[in-house]
Every structure is written in structure tokens, then in C-alpha cells.
Amino acid sequence: MAALGWFTRRRRPATERSVLAGEASAEAARKSSAETPAARPPAEPEFPVVGDERAAAFFDLDNTVMQGAALFHFGRGLYKRHFFRKRELARFAWQQAWFRMAGVEDPAHMEDVRSSALSIVKGHRVSELMSIGEEIYDEYMADRIWPGTRALAQAHLDAGQRVWLVTAAPVETATIIARRLGLTGALGTVAESVGGVYTGRLVGEPLHGPAKAEAVRALAGAEGLDLTRCAAYSDSANDIPMLSIVGHPYAVNPDTRLRRHAREHGWRLRDYRTGRKAAKIGIPAAAGVGAVAGGTAAAVALHRRRH
To answer: Which residues are catalytic?
Structure first.
């Protein structure tokens, strides 16, 4: 009984024992945390950085900002306005189909495609194409802007940064789209004009692949930008050169090669497509003449990629 009394007297009340257990557990947790820090990913820094005037964002257009190809939609508008005939339509359809199947840039074939497509606008005034481009944007393009990518661009604008489109589409078309979206401007393929009239020739080459990277470098130099603080966004592996020269590359709605490259290099990915399936601009047999026309009007002439 004496032993029982000794045990009873020394038992702590339940509430006191609970407090003691809690304190001991907390102390053990603190020691464990100090010895072995929790493995948690570092917080992602704020981006874009507000007020960074030496930073800017560069966005590819086709399937990055806009669903499909801008020139596909522009071609539809030009066909509707009788810029070319059905005979030319069949030729352009074959050229675009060849590009999609071959996936390579044969110099002779590229030259044939460019010459054929540029002949459409040869002799037309630049001001005429600009005016038509405004109408075509409202008809075919405005409803095809990816809301997610648009929000990314707006975030850069809200941070006080400049935002540029970088595309193989004609600079006039790209400029219209950039202005309609409230962006800073556009880099695009330059078609030669004399006295405000298209000659049917390009100034240099289409703004495609490595040429985009060179254009971004040139613009950054002229605008006093620090490319390590800039961002670039694209859906295509063709734009890896452009994505590689900035400090913040993003793969948006990426094709298979770009998705793999982005994962290997730790680039950020954004996918705004339904069902994670790329929207590809093709020429379905049952789509009719209007859809086939979309692949014309210099679309195949200015870049081989169609996603």
C-alpha cells in the first residue's frame, strides 16, 4: 500500500501531463528541423519584376499567342477578297502539304514557295494590305487569341515592361496584331516595297529559327535591354535559339521536341490547349475551298512550321 501511495502521489494530473507531452514533442520537432531541414522547393521569385526597365518579353505568334497560324487566317481573308484564283489555290495547297509532310527546308523548294506566295501581293500597295489586315483581324483572328498567353503578356505590361511579337509572318500583319493586343510592337518578316508598293521580294530571309534570335539581340541592343532579365515564349522547337538567349524561357503549348528540351533544361512550361493536344493548321479534304485558301497568301512562303 505504501508503494501504491507513493505512485499515486507522484502521478501528474492529466492536463499537466498533456502539456508536458506537447512541449516535449515541440522541442523534439525543433531539434529535428534544425538538424535536417525540410526538403521543400525554393519559393519562385516574383516575375515579371515590377519596374525593371531593362527587361522585356518576346512572344512567338502562331500557336503561342494565337491559335493556329496568323497567315492561315490572313490567307482566308485574301482569298475572300479575290487576291488569287483557284488554280493558284491548288498549287499553294500542294506546297503547304509538302512542307507539313517533309518537315525539312530544301533550298530549291523553299525558293519556289516564296516566289509563288510573294507574287500574290506583288504590285499591291502596303497601305492596302494594312487596311485589309485590320478587317481580317476582326473577321478571323480576334477570337483565336489564347487567353492564358494574353494574360502572360499583360503581366509584363502591368509590370512596366515592353512586350514584342516575334514572328515569321509579315511585319505588317504582326504589327496589326500587336497593336490590337496593346503590345509594344512586332518583329516580323519584311517584304520589299518601293514607293509604297510591294515588289514581290523579301528583304533578307523570313524571320524564322535563328533569325528570330538575331532580331531579338538587335532589338535588345537598340533598346538597352538586358537579355538575362528578359523572357521569351514559344510553342516550337524552331524557336529554341530565341528561347536560349533570354534569362526566362517559357515553352507555351509546346510541340514534342520543345517540351522535351524544356524539361531537360528546366524551362517553365505553360499549356493552354484543351486535352493537351496541339491545334494544327492543316488542309482537311472536306474543309472546302475557303479552308484550303487559308494556307496561301505567303503563309507557306514565310515559314515551314504549322502547329
So the answer is: 60, 62
